[in-house]
């Protein structure tokens, strides 16, 4: 327990200082294709289009929205944007084929028409600063892919308990600069909310066919790229992009329920993750209250790792003291995800 907390703290400190961060924007010469898969995202279209149209320092870019059988006003909102002068292209994805999930299927349709040297994938609820893509390309450097991790907006109490764990999980367990150059897929870290990849690297794996049926499409895409010989990793994108994934615990439960079962590879992997969360997040408090002095220090160390993660991702540092509660809820969500596997509904589809 104590030594695990020390190890987490050491790695969190190292990543805090070494994680790749944006530099000042300069004019880019690369051509860019931006792919945005949308399904029932009518409320996000207008703001997102404005965010994309405002991008600066890009030589030539194309913006492709892929409408994935939306049943709300998404198509109308996209047409309104085009009628208003937005330089966007809209593709209606064909009916979903067996063996595919919606997001990879939509991205594949965009990939087939992409002309840029660099392909950027965005979720519809992400908002970019005006220089975000240019700065992200600069962070890409000579790597094949990079995932600038957006700032995760968390307003409700349940969001504040769970959402910070996304970044903390890899900030405290993965040596990020080592992972960027590693051939080990176990070190892959990525976030499909904002992802850049060289088109020729995508070509090597057939676009998004390698992740056709993957719930964790972003992580599996990174792993597929690494298997093909590509290199890349995650970067600090909190000053470039932000998003609010969920608005209440019901949405959190559905969102995590559809994917957590796959996050750790197997039931034994999930059991190991649960043990890790218990040993590092809950056991220290139990030991502390039981009178064991090392329990207090172990709790302090893990709180510091959360605080470092929050500071780097522009989150709420004070929420770090609630890490034991966050760990307990995440354990519940992992178990729930396995029990609900194949029965969770997301955007009108059962996963």
From TrEMBL:
Pathway: Carotenoid biosynthesis; staphyloxanthin biosynthesis; staphyloxanthin from farnesyl diphosphate: step 4/5. Keywords: Cell membrane, Glycosyltransferase, Membrane, Transferase, Transmembrane, Transmembrane helix. It is found in: Cell membrane. GO terms for cellular component: plasma membrane. It comes from the Bacteria. The keyword Cell membrane applies. Signal peptide: none annotated. The keyword Transmembrane applies. InterPro entries: Glyco_trans_2-like (IPR001173), Nucleotide-diphossugar_trans (IPR029044). One of its GO terms (molecular function) is glycosyltransferase activity. Residues 33-205 form the Glycosyltransferase 2-like domain. Its main location: membrane. The chain crosses the membrane at residues 272-299, 320-338. PANTHER family: GLYCOSYLTRANSFERASE, GLYCOSYLTRANSFERASE 2-LIKE DOMAIN-CONTAINING PROTEIN. Belongs to the glycosyltransferase 2 family. CrtQ subfamily. Catalyzes the glycosylation of 4,4'-diaponeurosporenoate, i.e. the esterification of glucose at the C1'' position with the carboxyl group of 4,4'-diaponeurosporenic acid, to form glycosyl-4,4'-diaponeurosporenoate. This is a step in the biosynthesis of staphyloxanthin, an orange pigment present in most staphylococci strains. This is 4,4'-diaponeurosporenoate glycosyltransferase.
């Amino acid at each position: 327990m104590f030594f695990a907390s020390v190890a987490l703290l050491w790695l969190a400190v190292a990543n805090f200082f070494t994680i790749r961060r944006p530099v000042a924007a300069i004019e880019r010469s690369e051509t860019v294709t931006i792919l945005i898969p949308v399904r029932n995202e009518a409320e996000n279209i207008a703001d997102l289009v404005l965010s994309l149209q405002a991008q600066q320092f890009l030589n030539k870019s194309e913006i492709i929205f892929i409408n994935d059988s939306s049943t709300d006003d998404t198509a109308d909102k996209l047409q309104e944007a085009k009628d208003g002068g937005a330089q966007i292209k809209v593709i209606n994805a064909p009916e979903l084929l067996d063996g595919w999930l919606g997001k990879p299927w939509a991205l594949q349709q965009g990939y087939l028409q992409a002309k840029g040297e660099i392909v950027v994938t965005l979720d519809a609820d992400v908002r970019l600063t005006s220089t975000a893509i240019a700065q992200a390309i600069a962070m890409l450097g000579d790597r094949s892919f990079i995932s600038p991790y957006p700032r995760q907006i968390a307003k409700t109490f349940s969001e504040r308990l769970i959402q910070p764990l996304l970044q903390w999980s890899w900030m405290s367990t993965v040596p990020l600069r080592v992972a960027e150059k590693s051939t080990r897929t176990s070190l892959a870290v990525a976030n499909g909310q904002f992802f850049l990849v060289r088109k020729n690297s995508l070509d090597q794996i057939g676009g998004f066919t390698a992740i056709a049926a993957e719930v964790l499409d972003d992580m599996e895409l990174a792993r597929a790229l690494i298997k093909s010989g590509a290199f890349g990793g995650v970067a600090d994108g909190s000053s470039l992009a932000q998003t609010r994934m969920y608005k209440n615990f019901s949405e959190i439960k559905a969102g995590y329920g559809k994917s957590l079962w796959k996050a750790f590879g197997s039931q034994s992997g999930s059991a190991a993750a649960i043990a890790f969360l218990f040993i590092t997040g809950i056991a220290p408090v139990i030991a502390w209250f039981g009178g064991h002095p090392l329990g207090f220090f172990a709790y302090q160390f893990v709180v510091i790792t959360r605080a470092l993660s929050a500071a780097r991702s522009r989150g709420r540092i004070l929420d770090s003291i609630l890490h034991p509660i966050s760990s307990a809820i995440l354990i519940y969500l992992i178990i729930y995800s396995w029990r609900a596997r194949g029965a969770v509904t997301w955007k009108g589809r059962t996963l």
